Amino acid sequence: MRHSLIAPLVLLGTAVSAPAQVSIGVGIGLPGVNIGINFPMFPDLVRVPGYPVYYAPGADANYFFYDGMYWVYQGDDWYASSWYNGPWGRVAPEAVPLFILRIPVSYYRRPPAFFGSWQRDAPPHWGEHWGRGWEERRRGWNTWDRRSAPAPARLPTYQRNYAGERYPGVQQQRELRERNYRYQPREGIVREHYREQRAQPAAPSPDRGPQRGQSPRDSRPADPQPQRPRPEEPARPRPTPQSPPQSQPQPGGREAPRPQPPQGREREAPGRTGPGEARPSPGRDQGRDQGRGPERPRENRGEKPREDR
């Protein structure tokens, strides 16, 4: 399980071993690796009287909201998230905010067994549970003036619009928060958490990088294959125009008669008529006159023209 630092312990003036470091992110909402906090919708949160903290009375978990983040105590560990269903990050006991440590026992919906003998209207005995070393580092954690308690952070009710399949991923969670939630946290650990979130690079798009079961070498684009030139096709011989058949001389020195074009209606006159001019249709008189020569003018020999009877 990978953990990344959520708050440098320089803020607390101490150093701890690696297992006690504060870390974020072990899964994203539903489904995935989580701590078992899977609300089907935005939970109902009620303020703890006199504290700048909210709790979830209907949840089967020790679930709280403080300073713009959600806090869960489970399995003797504290977890934090900026969204109601995670992803969650483990918080070291040395980094848990004081107002979270001061929540009375009665507001833990699933208190652990060692809470049993403690006073319900008082906070848990964290120094007794975590040891003298923790008590020395967090000295005076339960000494405070209740009249000087800060105002609670505004609830991020915009998250009610994102439930079930609409629950956003990590990158979209950051964008939605910056767009819809203007609250400025007062705790150093929370401010550092948001600074580190903004510094993290955006997740690569799904179409980049090698896919599952594919090596990085296989994910590189293939080299383009050289294209082979196509063999040129041999030029086809053009057909030579055939000359019209010439008449062969007949025996005796005579030439064979040349074939005549067919006569009929489809035969065209040697001279074509222009546009708008009517073509004379062949008639009986025209065919009859073709065999005659030019008509000679009649001579006037003193004969009288015949009268039609």
Mind telling me the C-alpha Rg?
53 Å
Main beta sheet, described?
A: 6 strands, antiparallel
- The shape is elongated
**How would you spell out the order of helices and strands?**
EEEEEEEEHHHHHH
Coarse structural class: little secondary structure
> Please, what is the oligomeric state?
single chain
Give the averaged pLDDT, no decimals.
73
Distance between the termini: 138 Å
Range of helix content: 10-25%
Low-pLDDT stretches: 1-33, 205-222
Number of strands: 8
How do the strands line up in the largest sheet?
3-4-5-6-7-8
Q: What percent strand?
A: 5-15%
Helix run count = 6
Secondary-structure map:
Elements lengths: L3 E2 L17 E2 L21 E2 L6 E2 L6 E5 L2 E6 L2 E5 L7 E3 L6 H4 L24 H5 L1 H6 L32 H11 L7 H12 L84 H6 L20
Antiparallel strand pairs: 1-2, 3-4, 4-5, 5-6, 6-7, 7-8
Walkthrough of the structure:
The protein is built from 6 helices and 8 strands; from the N terminus they run E-E-E-E-E-E-E-E-H-H-H-H-H-H. The strands form 2 sheets. A 6-stranded antiparallel β-sheet has the order 3-4-5-6-7-8, with no helix packed on it. It has helices spanning 98-101, 126-130, 132-137, 170-180, 188-199, 284-289; strands spanning 4-5, 23-24, 46-47, 54-55, 62-66, 69-74, 77-81, 89-91. It is low in regular secondary structure and 309 residues long.
Give the structure's gist in a few sentences.
The protein is largely without helices or strands and 309 residues long. 14% of the residues lie in helices and 9% in strands.
